[in-house]
Amino acid sequence: MLLITGYASTRGADGSDKTFCDVVLDGLAPDGGLYVMNDSPASFTKQQLKRLVPLSYAERALRILEQWINPSHLHPSTLMQMTQNAYSFDNFDCNKVSTDSATL
């Protein structure tokens, strides 16, 4: 698991003391730039990607986001609830996003 060590602004401001929740709530860095991770994003092996295929869209999103969000910044159960809520039937006109991909 990749543990992000902080963020920086695309315009140069330091955000190394920021957590994931901080940058989401801030929106923009104080200098007007976008926050980006100081570390390289997580990468997935071919085998890890294959294991994502049978999962629902929400489950895939969760597995990917878990690699980028430090669990001490956002509890895994909270992240799971957020992805389930975000990709529920209530949020999409097309049920392909919220339906198990194996049935598509």
Would you mind describing this structure in some detail?
By secondary structure, this protein is mainly alpha-helical. The protein folds into two domains: 1-41, no CATH class; 43-104, no CATH class. Helix content is 36%, strand content 8%. It is built from four helices and three strands, in the order E-E-H-E-H-H-H. Helix 3 (57-68) packs antiparallel against helix 4 (76-86).
Order of helices and strands: EEHEHHH
Give the strand order, joined by hyphens, for the main sheet: 2-1-3
Structural class: mainly alpha
Largest sheet: 3 strands, antiparallel
User: Any idea how many domains?
Assistant: 2
Cα separation of the termini: 30 Å
Mean model confidence by pLDDT: 84
Give the count of helical stretches.
4
Task: Please give a quick description of this structure.
The chain is mainly α and 104 residues long. The protein folds into two domains: 1-41, no CATH class; 43-104, no CATH class. Strands 2-1-3 form a three-stranded antiparallel sheet, with no helix packed on it.
List the helices and strands and how they pair.
Layout: E1 7-9, E2 14-15, H1 20-26, E3 35-37, H2 46-52, H3 57-68, H4 76-86
Antiparallel strand pairs: 1-2, 1-3
Helix pairs in contact: 3-4
Sum up the structure in keywords.
mainly alpha; about 100 residues; about 10% strand; 2 domains; 4 helices; 3-stranded antiparallel β-sheet
